[in-house]
Please model this.
Amino acid sequence: MSYTVTAALGVLGALVLDLLVLRTRLVAGRVFWATYPIVLAAQLVSNGILTGRGIVRYDRHAILGPRLAHAPVEDLAFGFALVLTALSVWVWLGRRGIDGPVPPRAR
Amino acid sequence: MRHLTYLAVLAGCLAGALWLEPVLRVGVLRRWRRLLLTLVPVVAVFGAWDVAAIAAHHWSYDAGQTVGVLLPGRLPVEEALFFVVVPVCAILGYEAVRKVLRR
Model:
């Protein structure tokens, strides 16, 4: 499996977690989509340094080829999966009342 | 100093988001149990993905720009910290946006 395939599966897995497993439905609400552009901008800068300086190097056979701010486009999917998974678990734990009162639903 | 490059990037990410805790009082770090319970599965799953990708030679790390501490699966310690730092920053941002939109 190439990074292209695993990245796509990562996005799919994060969406299934958010919509069907934990049912946090963040991708159906506005808070997530208002947050994501900020996260994406930070990712393009920090990941741009990591890939531009060659701290992380990719096998060109494992990726499609197109790059954005030095990073393979697959990294956008990886970042999306990472952030959505983390936020979904965070919100799910919050709704279960972990650490304090249940906050109002984010929409 | 070059071996600290990856750590410096992580520190930069934290610096860009940690101020939200005291300034907007988002209460993310204050709810540390919830934060810890969020981080454990995320670090485990994405760390495993990373280890598999290293084994499959999808990507590799420049030994000259990392401190050289390798975790099981040849995972640089910085990469494990990445899976802590990025979720913490994202959660701080999410709670900050939620707070601002509610005003």
